[in-house]
Structures are given as C-alpha cells and as structure tokens.
C-alpha cells in the first residue's frame, strides 16, 4: 500500500486502493492472485509515466479552455494494441494528430491543446461480457492490458502479466513521443483497469495531492460512472484533470452529484464533461444538463464526443458510424451551447492516420459494402485519414459560424 501521507481533506478515508471496497463493474476477475500482486508491486515501484508539472500544466490549460481562450482536441484510437507500440506507428499517429491540431488552430484562429488517446489506452469497457461464435461462448476481448483478441479460452482469460506489458509499452510510447513531438502534447486514456491506475498513483509532495502518473488526464467511462462505484471512488481522490463521459441516460441531478463529488472545491480546469449523446438525442438531453450545471454555478469544460452515441451495426455486420451523423452531433452540440450561453471547449474523436474502412460516408463516400476492405480496429470504428481531415475542416466552419467569444476574467 502507498504511504498513508493523506492530506485529502474532503475524503480522509480515501487511499489509492479504497475502490476495492466498492461496487465494481468492468473489472476483470483475475484467477491468479499471486501473479496480480506481483504485477501491481512491479508497477508501484516503477518510474512515473508523466510528470507532476505536466499534470498541473494541463489543468491550467483546461481552465483557459473553459473560458473559451483555448480549444481542446482529444483524439486517437478507440483501443491501442501492444502490436501498434512500434516507432513507425507511434510516429505516424503523432504526425497525424499534430497535423489535425495545426489545421484546427489555423481554421479557428485559436490555440488548440492536443491530447492523444495514446500511451495507455489499452483497456476497453464491454457491453457484453461474453462473445458467441460457432455455438461456443467465450469471454469478450477487453483490451490488450487484460486479455488477447485471439479466440480461445486461454487467450481470453485475464492475465495479470499484461499490466506490466501495458506499462512498458506506455512508457516506451511516451519516450518516443517526447523525441518526435513538435509542440506540447498530452496523453490520456480511460481510467478503467483500477489495478493498473491505483498502482501508478502516488502522493505528490509537490502538489500535496495524490496523482495518477499513468497519464496527464483520465476519463470516467459511460458504463462505470455510478456514484457508489469503484471507478468514481478511485477518481475522487486523484488530482489529475478528469473527463466524465455523459450519455443519453444521464440524469441532470446525477451529473451534478458526480461533479460535487469529483470536484468538491469547484476548481476550474478540474473536470471536463464529455457529452456523447448521438446526433438527435443531443437535442433532447444537453440543454437540461447545461441548465442544471449553470444553476449550481459548477465549473466544467464542455467537450463533445460525436463518436460513441452514433455507433450502429451495418447490414454487413460491422460496427460502424456515419460521417454525417458525427458532423451533425457536433453541429447540434454547437447550437445548444450557443443557445444556452455556454462554451463548447473541445472535441473528442476516434480516428487514425491510416486509410481504414471503418466509418461510412465522407468525401471518400465509403459505403457499408466497403467496410470489409480495411476494417482493422480492435474495438470501435475510427475516422480514417481523409475523413478526419474533412471532419476538422467542416467542424471549423461550424465553429466559426457560432462565434464563441473569449470570456475575459
Ligand atoms: C471510449 O471512449 O472508447 C468509450 C468506450 O466511450 P464511452 O464510455 O463514452 O462509451
Ligand atoms: Co471507443
């Protein structure tokens, strides 16, 4: 256990592993406890992946974005794979993210903070616990940090050794990023596998706070945001910026309750609400949530994720998303923020530099019957190179039309 040097004023009983006493969802059931202990101890003694100052810097940038002075671009793969941790792939991913970031900056004439879904995005929440194939039932793939995508019982069994591999790959990815990045770039992933996150959480004598050193910012997923759940328990104790994914079944009072718990000081730059409703549901849901947050004067950075509410199964059997639906969610989100006098401060996207065939539409006019050609994702469908450039350009036009003026302190 990490030292009891706890200055957490709001939650005196909190510690990095207090989540173990809470209701748990999406956490694998590891059979080999000894191996799990070994992996966690290995991580606890390992070097930090990110630095205290970088975590603080990002929170300051978010507090600027919240006021409309900066814009946030958070993007990358739905799931990284261990295989994609090689220099060429990381370089291609960073080059593409930096290109999109500079394009957006140039278009909207505003500084953009770039945050990759990278260097640790190895755990995936799954709606279905099992997968069925040829009359057999097997555990679902939950990301390379947990099990393997290969289809056998042994491959799908959660393996604690994968925590160490994920750590090493994340560290290696960050080392490469630091060598090739052209300007500031932050890393993020979903705070899903709490054995991993809590092992990389230490007390910072610098910030007088507990920090999760696995990434600059972590987000709480749509499937794990129960107020009494393990994920909220873990995140309430850490000082990093936290994103909260909000889907169509989120009630305004639940969101307010989450904010009061995760940001008791109501600090600007601490929380982003990442809305992912779907292109039409956003029209029914967003204004009510904005209203309840404004009423309580809670500080949040509003981010739109137009990907996760727009997934559907194509008639050819592939999980996909359509370019027009994605753009429409962004358009509707902008309109609602404008109407409510609040600020859309960023976008959260799943995309790749490759010319994959995972999302339909766009200038490449990809059809459902083309999806099989280069469908490479291990999890959700990503915008390909041309679709992602087109989305940034189209979004920029809409953003300029909505004229989000800076708020002066
Ligand atoms: C994701 O970001 O890949 C994800 C699973 O999102 P959500 O929790 O919003 O469904
Ligand atoms: Co996803």
What does this structure look like?
This protein has helices at residues 33-44, 52-66, 87-108, 153-156, 161-180, 194-199, 230-236, 252-262, 281-295, 323-339, 385-402; strands at residues 71-76, 112-117, 130-133, 136-139, 186-190, 201-204, 209-212, 217-220, 241-246, 271-275, 301-304, 311-313, 319-321, 344-350. The protein is an alpha/beta fold and 409 residues long. It has one domain (7-124, 159-402): Alpha-Beta Barrel (TIM Barrel), CATH 3.20.20. Strand 12 and strand 13 (319-321) form a beta hairpin. The protein is globular, with a radius of gyration of 20 Å. Residues 1-5 have low confidence and may be disordered. Phosphoenolpyruvate binds at residues 78, 125, 190, 221-223, 245, 276, 308, 380.
CA-CA gap between termini: 42 Å
Write down the Rg. Answer: 20 Å
Described by strand count, sense and barrel closure, the largest sheet is: 8 strands, parallel, barrel
Percent of residues in β-strands: 15-25%
Number of helices: 11
Bound molecules: phosphoenolpyruvate, cobalt (II) ion
H/E element order: HHEHEEEHHEHEEEHEHEHEEEHEH
Structural class: alpha/beta
Mean pLDDT across the residues is 95
CATH topology: TIM Barrel
List the helices and strands and how they pair.
Blueprint: H1 33-44, H2 52-66, E1 71-76, H3 87-108, E2 112-117, E3 130-133, E4 136-139, H4 153-156, H5 161-180, E5 186-190, H6 194-199, E6 201-204, E7 209-212, E8 217-220, H7 230-236, E9 241-246, H8 252-262, E10 271-275, H9 281-295, E11 301-304, E12 311-313, E13 319-321, H10 323-339, E14 344-350, H11 385-402
Parallel strand pairs: 1-2, 1-14, 2-5, 5-8, 8-9, 9-10, 10-11, 11-14
Antiparallel strand pairs: 3-4, 6-7, 12-13
Helix pairs in contact: 1-5, 3-5, 3-11, 8-9, 9-10, 10-11
Residues 78, 308, 350, 379-380 line the site of cobalt (II) ion (CO).
């Amino acid at each position: 256990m990490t030292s009891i040097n706890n200055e957490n004023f709001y939650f005196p009983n909190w510690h990095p592993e207090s989540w173990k006493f809470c209701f748990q969802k999406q956490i694998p059931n590891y059979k080999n406890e000894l191996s799990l202990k070994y992996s966690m101890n290995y991580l606890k003694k390992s070097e930090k992946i990110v630095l205290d100052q970088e975590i603080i810097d990002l929170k300051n940038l978010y507090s600027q974005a919240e006021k409309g002075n900066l814009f946030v671009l958070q993007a990358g793969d739905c799931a990284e794979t261990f295989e994609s941790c090689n220099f060429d792939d990381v370089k291609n991913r960073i080059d593409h993210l930096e290109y999109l970031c500079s394009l957006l900056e140039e278009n909207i004439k505003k500084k953009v903070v770039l945050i990759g879904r990278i260097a640790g995005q190895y755990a995936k929440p799954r709606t279905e616990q099992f997968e069925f194939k040829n009359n057999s039932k097997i555990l679902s793939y939950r990301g390379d940090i947990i099990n393997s995508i290969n289809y056998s019982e042994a491959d799908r069994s959660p393996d604690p050794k994968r925590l160490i591999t994920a750590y090493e790959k994340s560290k290696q990815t960050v080392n490469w990023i630091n060598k090739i990045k052209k300007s500031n770039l932050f890393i993020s992933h979903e705070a899903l596998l709490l054995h991993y996150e809590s092992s990389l959480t230490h007390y910072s004598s610098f910030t007088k706070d507990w920090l999760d050193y696995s990434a600059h910012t972590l987000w709480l997923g749509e499937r794990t945001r129960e107020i009494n759940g393990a994920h909220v328990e873990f995140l309430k104790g850490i000082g990093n910026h936290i994103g909260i994914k909000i889907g169509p079944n989120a009630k305004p009072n639940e969101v307010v309750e989450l904010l009061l718990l995760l940001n008791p000081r109501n600090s600007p730059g601490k929380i982003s609400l990442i809305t992912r409703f779907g292109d039409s549901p956003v029209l029914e849901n967003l204004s009510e949530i904005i209203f309840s947050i404004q009423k309580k004067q809670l500080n949040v950075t509003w981010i739109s994720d137009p990907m996760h509410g727009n997934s559907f199964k194509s008639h050819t059997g592939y999980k996909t998303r359509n370019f027009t639906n994605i753009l429409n969610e962004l358009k509707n989100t902008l309109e609602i923020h404008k109407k409510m006098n609040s600020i859309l401060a960023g976008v959260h996207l799943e995309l790749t530099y490759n010319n994959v065939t995972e999302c339909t539409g766009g200038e490449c006019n990809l059809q459902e019957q083309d999806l099989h050609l280069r469908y490479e994702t291990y999890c959700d469908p990503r915008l390909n190179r041309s679709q992602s450039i087109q989305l940034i350009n189209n979004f920029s036009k809409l953003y300029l039309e909505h004229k989000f003026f800076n708020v002066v302190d």
